[in-house]
Amino acid sequence: MHCPFCRHADSRVIDSRTSDDGSSIRRRRQCPACQRRFTTIETASLSVAKRSGVTEPFSRDKVVAGVRKACQGRPVSSDDLALLAQKVEETLRASGRPEVEANEVGLAILGPLRELDEVAYLRFASVYQSFESLEDFESAIVSLRAEREARDDGESSADDGGSSDRDGATSGATAAGRDAAR
Ligand SMILES: [Zn+2]
After folding, report:
1. Each residue of 7-21: pLDDT tens digit?
2. Angle CA(115)–CA(68)–CA(43) in degrees, nearest 5?
3. Are strands 12-18 and 24-30 parallel, antiparallel or unpaired?
4. C-alpha of residue 16 to centroid of ligand 1, in Å
5. How far is CA 131 from the centre of its chain?
6. Which whole-number Å values give the CA distances from 3 to 6, 29, 37, 47, in the listed order?
7. What are 90-140's pLDDT values in tens digits?
8. How far is the CA of 27 from the centre of ligand 1 (A)?
């Protein structure tokens, strides 16, 4: 990697550390020519192909911006939104592909948003899935109710063995991924 100060063709890694969530590595480097130090951040590439044909890097900020409007006036904090964007990224990265379609990002948002706030979910889904009539809202609400009842029924029997095979840190993300893929 070239030195950003003097353009020397080589640099030496003096420290590497993995970010808290394990998604990136920061490397402290030093230039052997001018001795100045700089930092590089290494992440697995994940890009989003938009309908226009343009490809751009996946951005959690864009996910938050896309969902924030649907959450106006709802009891959803910016921490909730940051966590939602993290789940969306985990779901997309779990596909193992370096590039996903823009509509897959929307799909990956629906699951965790439904868990977060059902009204915000309906607002987001109505725009994302272009609801055109009252019937579209009705059928979305009917399926929300059906899923909520199925979940309530399932909870009583699933309580005993639910988290024994996985540690707490990964089980949340796994549940979110499963929901988004439904
Ligand atoms: Zn240099």
Report:
1. 999 999 999 999 887
2. 85
3. antiparallel
4. 19
5. 24
6. 6, 9, 9, 27
7. 999 998 889 999 989 999 999 999 999 999 999 998 988 878 888 888 888
8. 16
